[in-house]
Amino acid sequence: MPLPSAALPAGATTWLEIDQAAIGHNVRLLRGLTGPQTRLLAVIKADAYGHGARATARSVIAAGATALGVASLPEALELRGAGITAPILVLSFVPPAALPAALEQGLTLTLFDAAQARACDQQARKSGRRLKAHVKLDSGMGRMGTLVADAPALQEQLAQMPWLQLEGCYTHFALADEDIDWTREQLRRFLAAVHAMRRRGARFPTLHSANSAATLTLPESHLGLVRPGIALYGLSPSDGVPLPSGFRPALTWKTQIVQLRDLPAGHSVGYGRTWTASSATRMAVLPVGYEHGFRRAPHEPRSVLLRGQIAPVIGRISMEKTAIDVTAIPQAQVGDEVVLLGRQGKACISAEMLAARFGSSNYEVVTGLSARMPRLQLSRSET
């Protein structure tokens, strides 16, 4: 396949191709699993899990998502600056000094405790406009939020904050991809806390709890709004919760051969001389390394795809260089396209395969891909 040189910045030799049609397709599959009465908030934090937040935001909204979720205020402001007007829920903390920007852009913030809520209420009063917010309850994740046991006391304080427009309440599951019984217990705790808050006057139009794993496996957690992240991108929440058939991975990671060399037997490759040719070897050099996210994994074999065949990595991966053995692919040429993650012909290297080699997760693989690599936003017909 010819390199997409016309679409790449000058000099770029390592890049990502994002199939936005696949992301839209995955959104429609998720909506089909949850039913027409259930809305979908698409989590596109961490630059849409490395896929590019602005393009992904447009794709998920076009496919039927009703809102977006991001981790930080800068992420939300980037989307607003790109002309994206859909509701945006900021899932993490926003510093008090930045609240005017959130109010001006009509963002929805997360309230974690009474002190933070009070600061938001005071800033909203100063600005003369109510602040849209969702309350986060800790039902067992043990991260941010108010303990479910303290929810009634929190509601008594929220009732004294008229400048907060409370649009929802949510929790986050700790083991939805591993332990469905514990997840059900978290859901029970959350709903009991919401009931206690409502007895004290709370009116939450929206409740939500389901991440990707719960969206797929626990229908009672849907609550009228689901909040998937990793599944949007065609990636499984975990080995224990694989995606149903039909989901399509959206990301392909590519580079190209920049040099071919013939090495004699006994010649070593890379730092530490961890690999030595046992016989005459044809080596190709790739302009990609751990600075791009192609991490070292000294105890696991590594390979890439070249001309639809598997080519093993040899030697230690450098910051921006990797060597591969192409002895078995004699037709290899400088400029040939190489796939590090994704499909080439009938061969495929999945994010899960890379994660196993890295000793991490598919989440870490895709979010760890350097932001400096160009992301070509393509439709399926272009990939």
Give a nutshell description of this structure:
With 383 residues, the protein is α/β, with parallel strands linked by helices.
Structural account:
With 383 residues, this protein is an alpha/beta fold. The chain has two domains: 38-233, Alpha-Beta Barrel (TIM Barrel); 251-382, Lyase, Ornithine Decarboxylase, Chain A, domain 1. Helices cover 28% and strands 24% of the residues. It has eleven helices and 21 strands. It has helices at residues 20-34, 45-49, 53-62, 73-81, 99-104, 114-127, 151-158, 180-199, 212-217, 351-358, 362-367, and strands at 15-19, 39-43, 67-70, 88-90, 108-111, 131-138, 146-147, 164-170, 206-208, 225-226, 251-256, 259-263, 268-269, 275-276, 281-286, 303-306, 309-314, 322-325, 337-344, 347-349, 375-378. Strands 1, 11, 12, 15, 16, 17, 18, 19, 20 and 21 form a ten-stranded mixed β-sheet that branches. The longest helix has 20 residues, at 180-199. The model has no long low-confidence stretch (mean pLDDT 96).
